[in-house]
Design a protein that fits this description.
930 residues; mainly beta; 8-stranded mixed beta sheet
């Protein structure tokens, strides 16, 4: 018996507030000390924020929460004021000075999280300025997050203006503890607005670096303003500054814009550009050093002004675009830009890639990735190769107006990021020429690394059903596909994030990349991941069998041996011969075979296998559906005679089936979800067990019980019947689970066969089951007892039937065999590759196979070290063991996604770097091997 040391749970407590901030006097302030009672009026916390959206209102955990709490949520933190980085949890809880906080994780708030204030209106007020403290609270958080302060007006704004702050860059994390005073002045466009004024502190770009994301707080927010003399002339501009400009000598830069308007004017507004810049009312023409906007009845309506660098001489330029009118306060819009000297003597990219890192190279090419990777990084290629181009500040895409297909010139120093070669930019410029979008190079998955940096296409990929998330890798056999960040500070939103795709075969387009020694394809667009057909059935079967391991398979041979229309393949001799071919090719040590409808045909199959040099023994169930109809479907086993001894067979629920046959209803079936209790366990097609001593060469004998199942089938036509069949199957398989756990609690068990449902989500999609929960949910929820080995095939988008895109044939095992399962050995047969017209001549199901290593190591490990990234887990059920008497597990790895991990040892030590993210299940237990 193992004693549970601890279990991590993640939960949020929601508290919502309404209302708006109503301005009065000359200032508004908020210290957030009352967060235990909810958010202050007018404040919300949001996720999913973007350059065009406020985002979705989120919950606040009102309970006092420590800075190092790693669950993703908006939280009630202690303010950094008066405390230190080493303040204890008791000291943090005792502090009455609170801060509105956020802990980001890979699935919460990274990026696109915001602290938002809503002001009812600014009618009668002007000269707005704000200040607040931004606090970096958890020194164990190495990742950094960059924040912006933005404003907008309107009931539901779709455009936001970024304020220039002091300090200019607002960063939390980086293993720092800090409270930084931030100030900013709102432009005149915020003055005297009859609609809502929104102010938000937002992160629109993904965190940078590795390990934990930060705990960020804001505190002591203040907004000051003054009353307007409404009769005075006034000018309003939408922003006080424009993003920086870059171009190459001889070409003007891209344009940037702002809006200007005026009231109570006696003359028009004169707009004047500083030296090196020019302005226009058109984005493409009529640029000049100044222009005049005429007034009508004292009003200049809101007008868009375009500004750009002239670019006629190299150098750095800065100043203000001034907006003036007699009697009105001048409004300035600051501009800054660089005109680079032209580049020359370009090196082919393939040649540049061979240079020593640290070398300055000058290259040119077509853009294959623009804003899709955030704006700090693009990819370019010429006719010799491709490469990453990176600059750690600003946004090289936005500053140069780049898009896929544009021609660019780049100069910089060769370097790498996690072994991905890149040019660290010192100069980049767009060439004024027609766009040409590069075509991807078709390669195989084994050629990714030698084509690093190029836009490539890989065909015949097994795509899994998924909804894409940002900063996530997907194992689409045979490639790893990387989805990048969700959004950037320029407002770009990755279109792949949040989109879904169903399982099938297809192709992947993207950049051939790497993460250290591992290859990746970096997808950019929704058109980069394309499903073209149903999932491929599996791998080459003749590479499955292996000496020295227990090789297990299950296979539904559709109505094997049955004659007549509607009972599977019509040529019974051909079906038998093809079945022999599949069995001999796979050559598993034991098969669970379903839908055996003719015992004579089955016995002939076994006899011919033995005649042809394959020494198998066959045994079949005597319990069939519908009162043991002689023409019904049997559950059978086929095993290698030499490897199995002391064989016994039995039926589970035999006594219950006998009672039903005698028109008696056992108490177990009082809650059966159908009035006809004889429908229990597929109407009598009972689980059939074979228990034997398994004698694999060079391994100790191990007694194992094999449980062959053929669960109740589905219907896809009538929703009422679909739900009824789902409920009956769920009742059946849960009754089986309870029996296995009660009567065979310490028996090594391998349960296999036609489950007639998938292990991730139910295939009974017409049944109306909430969230499409699988009927095998009880097994998924019992990871300490059952290992769902073939769920990885579902996650990989594979299928086990000819006509449907789901895995409904599975193999699972009990915890006694946890250490024996050979990770990665689960696979689906690809019999179609060697059996002509397989689906019509042989079966509508494919065989599913996996392996166990029964060799026992003695003694077991006294020390098991789990480190990133080698031991990171993002899906599946994982059990890691060290000695239960003297062993230790030391972990600095990460558990993310849907992983369900259990660490068992005498001691479990979690060190800096270890994390289990929200949504995962992690358990540390006293116990282990021995």
């Amino acid at each position: 018996m193992k004693n549970i040391l601890f279990v991590l749970f993640f939960s949020l407590f929601a508290l919502f507030t309404n209302g708006q901030v109503v301005l009065s006097g000359s200032s508004y302030s908020q210290n957030f000390d009352g967060l235990a009672n909810g958010l202050p009026a007018g404040w919300t916390v949001r996720t999913g924020s973007s350059a065009t959206s406020l985002g979705t209102t989120a919950s606040l955990t009102t309970a006092l929460t420590n800075w190092n709490n790693t669950a993703g949520a908006f939280k009630n933190f202690a303010s950094a004021d008066g405390l230190t980085s080493t303040s204890t949890s008791t000291q943090q809880s005792a502090s009455t000075d609170r801060a509105l906080g956020l802990r980001q994780t890979g699935t919460f708030g990274d990026p696109n999280a915001a602290f938002v204030m809503q002001v009812s209106n600014t009618t009668g007020f002007e000269n707005f300025a704000l200040s607040f403290k931004i606090q970096s609270l958890d020194v164990a958080s190495a990742r950094t997050v960059t924040w912006q302060v933005q404003w907008a007006v309107g009931a539901n704004p779709t455009a936001f203006n970024t304020l220039t702050t002091v300090p200019a860059t607002l960063t939390t994390g980086g293993s720092t503890f800090a409270s930084t005073e931030v100030t900013a002045t709102l432009p005149s466009g915020a003055n005297n607005q009859s609609g809502n004024l929104w102010i938000r502190i937002v992160t629109l770009a993904s965190s940078a670096g590795a390990n934990n994301r930060p705990s960020t707080g804001i505190d002591d927010f203040s907004l000051t303003y003054s009353s307007i003399n409404t009769s005075n002339p006034s000018i309003s501009v939408s922003t006080n500054s424009l993003l920086s400009f870059t171009t190459t000598e001889g070409s003007p830069s891209i344009e940037r814009s702002y809006t200007v308007s005026g009231e109570n004017l006696t003359e028009g507004i004169t707009v004047t550009a500083p030296a090196g810049f020019e302005v226009s009312l058109s984005p493409t023409s009529s640029y000049a050093s100044s222009l005049v906007l005429s007034q009508s009845s004292g009003v200049v309506a809101t007008t868009t002004i375009y500004a750009r660098l002239i670019g006629n001489v190299a150098g750095s330029f800065s100043g203000n675009v001034t907006n003036t009118s007699t009697g009105a306060t001048q409004q300035n819009v600051s501009v800054v830009g660089t005109v680079n000297p032209p580049l020359a003597n370009f090196t082919p990219i393939a040649t540049a890639r061979t240079q020593t890192q640290g070398t300055t190279v000058t290259i040119a090419g077509r853009v294959t990735v623009g804003q899709q990777f955030g704006g700090l990084q693009i990819f370019i290629q010429d006719n010799t190769g491709g490469i990453s181009v990176f600059r750690g500040t600003g946004n090289i895409v936005q500053e140069n107006g780049l898009a896929i297909g544009d021609s660019v010139q780049v100069q910089g120093v060769l370097g790498n990021f996690n072994q991905l070669l890149q040019v660290n930019v010192s100069q980049i410029s767009k060439v004024n020429t027609s766009s040409v979008i590069p075509a991807p190079k078709v390669i195989s998955s084994s050629e990714i690394l030698q084509n690093e940096g190029l836009l490539v296409r890989i065909n015949d990929v097994n795509i899994q059903t998924t909804t894409f998330a940002a900063q996530t890798n997907y194992s689409f056999v045979p490639v790893q596909v990387r989805i990048t960040q969700q959004a950037n500070s320029a407002g770009y939103v990755n279109p792949l994030v949040g989109t879904s795709i169903t399982a099938g075969t297809g192709y992947i387009i993207g950049i051939a990349g790497r993460f250290n020694t591992s290859s990746q394809v970096l997808a950019r667009l929704t058109t980069d991941i394309v499903r073209t057909g149903d999932p491929a059935p599996g791998s080459t079967d003749d590479s499955f069998d292996a000496d020295g391991t227990l090789d297990v398979a299950c296979w539904n041979i559709e109505w094997f041996g049955a004659t007549g229309s509607g009972f599977g393949p019509t040529d019974e001799t051909l079906q038998k011969d093809n079945a022999k071919t599949v069995i001999k090719t796979i050559n598993a040590d034991i098969f669970n075979l379903n839908e055996i409808a003719n015992l004579t045909a089955f016995n002939t199959l076994v006899s011919e296998l033995n005649t042809e040099g394959f020494a198998y023994t066959g045994v079949c169930s005597s319990r069939l559906s519908n009162n043991d109809n002689v023409n019904g479907q049997r559950v059978c086993f086929l095993y290698k005679t030499a490897l199995f001894s002391n064989v016994t067979t039995r039926h589970i629920f035999e006594a219950i089936d006998d009672s039903l046959d005698a028109s008696q209803t056992p108490n177990l079936l009082n809650n059966y979800p159908d009035a006809d209790k004889t429908r229990f366990w597929a109407s009598g097609r009972l689980p059939f067990t074979l228990t034997a001593d398994v004698n694999i060469p060079n391994s100790p004998s191990k007694r194992i019980m094999f449980v062959g199942v053929h669960a109740r089938a589905n219907t896809s036509t009538n929703p009422t019947e679909a739900l009824s069949r789902y409920n009956m199957r769920k009742f059946d398989v849960e009754a089986l689970r309870d029996t296995l756990n009660t009567r065979f609690a310490n028996t090594p068990i391998i349960m296999l066969g036609d489950f007639n449902d998938d292990l991730d989500f139910t295939v009974a999609t017409t049944a109306g089951v909430p969230n499409n929960v699988t009927s095998y949910v009880a097994y998924n929820n019992d990871p300490t007892r059952f290992n769902m080995h073939t769920r990885v095939l579902s996650d990989a988008g594979l299928k086990s039937t000819v006509s449907f895109s789901d895995m409904i044939d599975h193999v699972i095992s009990s915890n006694e065999l946890s250490s024996n399962y050979i990770t990665g050995s689960a696979r689906v047969s690809n019999a179609e590759s060697y059996v002509t017209s397989y689906g019509s001549t042989t079966s509508d199901h494919y065989s599913v196979m996996l392996r166990f290593n029964l060799t026992e190591s003695s003694p077991c490990s006294n020390l098991l070290t789990l480190v990133s990234p080698a031991d990171d887990y993002s899906s599946g059920t994982i059990t890691k063991q060290a000695s239960s008497t003297a062993g230790k597990i030391v972990a600095t790895n990460t558990i993310t996604g849907t992983a369900n991990a259990t660490y068992q040892a005498k001691a479990v030590e979690l060190n800096a770097g270890f994390k289990a993210e929200s949504g995962t299940i992690f358990k540390a237990e006293i116990g282990g091997c021995n």
